[in-house]
Each structure stands twice: as C-alpha cells, then as structure tokens.
C-alpha cells in the first residue's frame, strides 16, 4: 500500500486553512443564517463539517474519534448548537482534522485498510473531507450572499479567504 501522498497532505492542510480563514470572518450571528429558506443554517453546516470527521472516525478508527468535542446535539443532522463562537468551531475542526490525519497515518504505518469504508486506501478519507468541506463552504458563502448583510468588500474578503489557500 503506498504511503500518504505529500500532495494530498498539502491539499488537506490547504483545506484546513480555508476553513480557518472562513471562520475568522464569521460571527456568531451568522450561525442562524439559512442556506435556503427552511434549510440548514450556517451553524448547522459548520457542525456537520466537524461531525463528519467524528462520525466517520467512529466507524473506521474509533479511538481516533475520542476527544473531538460535540458541537451540536444531533451530530450528523446539526440540531441545537453546543458551541457559541467561531473560536470553538475552529478548535473543534482543528482537533477533528488532527484525528483524521492521525487515523490515516496510523493505518498506513500499520499497513492496514479501514474496515467497511475507504477500504481501497485510507487516504481516501482525507480526500472525502476536502470535497465535503468545499461543498459546505460554498453553501455557507451562498447563505452569506443571500443574507446581504455585508458590504461588497466584506463579501470579497470572504471569497478570497476560502479561495486564496488554493492559489499559493
């Protein structure tokens, strides 16, 4: 089984930077903004991003899921938030990313595949998180545009914050 591709590791780190940059420009008031009327809110999407790592880790490498804070009452589906600041979301995502990376690196070091999911190569878990986060970051940006509560310059700063890591 091949080792972790350095390029994939770099992409995973850039993904984390894009998430961190976005969180730096959000406010707790943004958490209640919906993507579409009646849909998930920004807070729900952020909670889902954290829990996607926790949920998958519980299935593929349970010890690595320990210590990741629960950020919403209902896990995958969001629900009432248990965090109330962007700093808490940022910390939860950092811990979840570190756990995801450790799970993949440990599986590779042991030359083992994950049970049930990502069974062709453990690194596919990291690929999924990159794609998954990009999808939800786009939804968050759309929700912020629809809310129209920022100046054009602030909106551009948000766009730059999530895209710049990919162009360096």
Describe the fold and architecture:
The chain is built from 6 helices and no strands. The protein has a single domain, classed as Four Helix Bundle (Hemerythrin (Met), subunit A), CATH 1.20.120.450. The chain is globular and about 50 Å long.
Produce a short descriptive summary.
This protein is mainly α.
Jot down its keywords.
Four Helix Bundle (Hemerythrin (Met), subunit A), 168 residues, mainly alpha, 0% strand
What name does CATH use for the topology? Four Helix Bundle (Hemerythrin (Met), subunit A)
**Overall structural domain count:** 1
Find the structural class using helix and strand composition. Answer: mainly alpha
Give the beta-strand count: 0
Question: What would the average pLDDT be, to the nearest integer?
Answer: 92
Tell me what the CATH architecture is.
Up-down Bundle
Helical percentage? 55-70%
> How many H/I helical runs?
6
What's the topology here?
Blueprint: H1 6-25, H2 42-60, H3 62-65, H4 86-109, H5 124-147, H6 152-163
Helix pairs in contact: 1-4, 1-5, 1-6, 2-4, 2-5, 5-6
């Amino acid at each position: 089984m091949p080792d972790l591709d350095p390029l994939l590791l770099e992409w995973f780190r850039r993904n984390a930077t894009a998430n961190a940059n976005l969180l730096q420009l959000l406010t707790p008031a943004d958490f209640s903004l919906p993507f579409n009327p009646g849909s998930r809110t920004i807070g729900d999407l952020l909670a889902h991003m954290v829990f996607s790592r926790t949920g998958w880790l519980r299935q593929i490498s349970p010890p690595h899921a320990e210590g990741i804070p629960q950020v919403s009452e209902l896990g995958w589906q969001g629900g009432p938030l248990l965090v109330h600041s962007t700093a808490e979301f940022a910390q939860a995502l950092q811990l979840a990313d570190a756990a995801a990376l450790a799970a993949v690196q440990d599986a590779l070091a042991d030359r083992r595949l994950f049970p049930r999911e990502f069974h062709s190569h453990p690194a596919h878990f990291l690929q999924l998180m990159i794609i998954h986060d990009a999808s939800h970051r786009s939804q968050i940006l759309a929700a912020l545009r629809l809310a129209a509560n920022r100046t054009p310059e602030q909106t551009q700063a948000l766009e730059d914050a999530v895209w710049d890591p990919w162009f360096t």
